[in-house]
Amino acid sequence: MAGGGFYTIAGRKVATHQLAIGGLVGYGLLIKALMPKQKDLKADPPIKASSDDEFKFIEKFIKEAEAEDAKAHH
């Protein structure tokens, strides 16, 4: 194998493969930092109901739909 390439950065010799790995790691960390947190993804929008009965109906419907969805995925 050939000796490979080197760059001089801050007075030190750095191999090109180390620069490539460092760039990929930096890119991955940047993407991870910009991704929404897991708890942000699970936040449900508020239920806007005009009456207490409507609120209870919507809540019951959502629970039943989630139960069916969970059953279908298992």
UniProtKB/TrEMBL annotation:
GO cellular component, one term: mitochondrial membrane
Cell compartment(s), UniProt: Mitochondrion membrane
Gene Ontology terms: biological process: proton motive force-driven ATP synthesis
UniProtKB keywords: Membrane, Mitochondrion, Transmembrane, Transmembrane helix
Residue ranges crossing the lipid bilayer per the database entry: 15-35
Main location: mitochondrion
The protein's name in its UniProt record: ATP synthase subunit K, mitochondrial
Organism expressing this protein natively: Zancudomyces culisetae (Gut fungus)
